[in-house]
């Protein structure tokens, strides 16, 4: 009896010891860009904060540059549970909810501050949970920046775009955007854009300053118009089933770390946009053209019918909330 009691005590002590040294929860955070980008910096900041505040409980493994999964496969990998966190472009969510098409609507937001206000609003926050039934839970939004129009023609008025071919992402809204001004949208992979511009397969494109400079699009375009006509952002998302299975204290710690890391990444994105704009201007390979208020209004008026076209899919309440975010 004494021997059995000793065995029980020893077993209990061993179990406690094993519990105290239980393997940490491993989180794979996969993305498709470099560590030095705002998205890459945000991912590394998340790892730093989590491993500091949830020491021993959670280990974050960051995989940049499509090391695990490329742009076309990462969503499937998340839903299968092969990774836990990714940060795709907002244009990638069309098959999961049409509501996120709001971020592709042209000239809806005046600037990145308006985008911030909308994303922080109840309507913007509701989009983060709009795909939960599809297995996707959103943490928050990461900026890449406002988009600028570019071409080998001065695009000062909507009429200047008529007949030109523009490269777009695979988006029905972006297709309608260029058709609204008589242009011809062409869906081309991002990796092929430089060559398409260089060889004249397309006449122009739309991109934030970071993409324009880092991919050298300004070297094969004569003019870049400071249109700020749209936003190119990401949503940081997790596998909803995996998230629901985490202990509450771990969820709380991860959410706090994610909020801080997203704010960190967005600050870097804002600073980077200004830096890359200045670099494009300094290179003097493309002429950067500002738009007057009247010119910008003409573009907005020409493309505004796209809002009505997609209002039924997106929701009038969301479009109204976005307009309120402009502060006018």
Give the secondary structure arrangement, pairings included.
Elements (H helix, E strand, L loop, with lengths): L1 H19 L4 E6 L7 H16 L4 E6 L10 H7 L4 E2 L25 H9 L1 H5 L9 E16 L13 E4 L3 H8 L4 E4 L5 H7 L4 E4 L1 H6 L8 E17 H5 L3 H36 L3 E4 L2 H11 L1 H10 L1 H10 L3
Parallel strand pairs: 1-2, 1-3, 5-6, 8-9
Antiparallel strand pairs: 3-8, 4-7, 4-8
Helix pairs in contact: 2-10, 4-13
Q: Helix and strand succession?
A: HEHEHEHHEEHEHEHEHHEHHH
Give the fraction of residues assigned to helices.
40-55%
Total beta-strand segments:
9
Q: How would you classify the helix and strand content by structural class?
A: alpha/beta
Which regions have little confidence, pLDDT < 50, spanning 5+ residues? Answer: 13-20
User: What count of helical segments does DSSP give?
Assistant: 13
The proportion of residues in beta strands is 15-25%
Q: What characterizes the major β-sheet?
A: 7 strands, mixed
Described by the principal axes of the CA atoms, the overall outline is globular
Radius of gyration: 23 Å
Could you report the average pLDDT, rounded to the nearest whole number? 91
Distance between the termini: 82 Å
Short description:
The protein is an alpha/beta fold and 328 residues long. It is 45% helix and 19% strand. α2 runs antiparallel to α10 (248-283).
Short descriptors:
328 residues, alpha/beta, seven-stranded mixed beta sheet, 9 strands, 45% helix
């Amino acid at each position: 009896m004494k021997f059995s009691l000793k065995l029980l005590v020893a077993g209990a002590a061993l179990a406690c010891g094993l519990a105290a040294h239980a393997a940490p929860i491993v989180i794979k955070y996969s993305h498709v860009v470099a560590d030095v980008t705002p998205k890459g910096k945000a991912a590394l900041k998340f790892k730093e904060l989590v491993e500091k505040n949830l020491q021993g409980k959670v280990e974050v493994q960051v995989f940049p540059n499509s090391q695990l999964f490329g742009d076309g496969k990462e969503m499937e990998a998340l839903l299968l549970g092969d990774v836990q966190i990714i940060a795709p472009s907002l244009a990638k969510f069309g098959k999961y909810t049409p509501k996120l098409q709001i971020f592709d609507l042209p000239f809806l937001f005046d600037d990145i501050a308006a985008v911030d206000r909308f994303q922080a609003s109840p309507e913007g926050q509701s989009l983060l949970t709009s795909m939960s039934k599809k297995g996707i839970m959103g943490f928050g939004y990461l900026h890449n920046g406002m988009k600028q129009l570019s071409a080998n023609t001065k695009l000062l008025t909507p009429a200047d775009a008529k007949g030109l071919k523009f490269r777009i992402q695979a988006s029905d809204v972006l297709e309608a955007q260029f058709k609204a001004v008589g242009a011809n949208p062409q869906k081309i992979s991002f990796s092929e854009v430089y060559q398409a511009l260089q060889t004249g397969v397309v006449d122009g494109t739309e991109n934030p300053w970071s993409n324009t400079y880092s991919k050298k699009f300004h070297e094969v375009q004569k003019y870049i118009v400071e249109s700020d006509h749209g936003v190119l952002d990401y949503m940081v998302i997790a596998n909803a089933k995996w998230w629901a299975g985490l202990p509450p204290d771990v969820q709380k710690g991860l959410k706090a770390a994610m909020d801080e890391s997203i704010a960190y990444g967005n600050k870097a994105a804002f600073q980077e946009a200004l830096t890359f704009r200045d670099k494009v201007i300094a290179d003097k390979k493309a002429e950067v053209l500002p738009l007057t208020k009247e010119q910008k209004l003409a573009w907005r008026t020409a493309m505004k019918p796209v809002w009505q076209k997609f209002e039924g899919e997106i929701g009038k309440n969301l479009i109204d909330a976005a307009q309120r975010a402009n502060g006018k």
